[in-house]
Fold this sequence. Notes:
The protein is of the alpha/beta class and 118 residues long. It has four helices and five strands.
Amino acid sequence: MRIPILKLRDYLLISVQVELDDQTALQFQEDVLSKIHEEGSRGVVIDLTSVEMIDSFIAKVLGDVVDMSNLMGAKVVLTGIQPAVAITLIDMGITLDDVPTALDLEQGLDRLQLELEG
């Protein structure tokens, strides 16, 4: 199953509405990087509001997407991280220190704009 990626000006908006399994996560990684390259996107907002659980592999793929996007010149903002997901990430030692976060998609877009202007 593919996760839809929407384009809004220079940004990509991604709302993860499905349960992430290993194959979906890897396809997501490939799709995001391809879309950044094709569109020349400067920023990406990944909304995780619907993601209730995350395992170590999915967490690693998510971290890799952020790092790879940054290498390609696109800043990533994560939004809607649920408490259980935040706890799991910290328990696994994944802190995502340099990754801006926001409570929801609207705040994520505002945060992305600030990140790109600053």
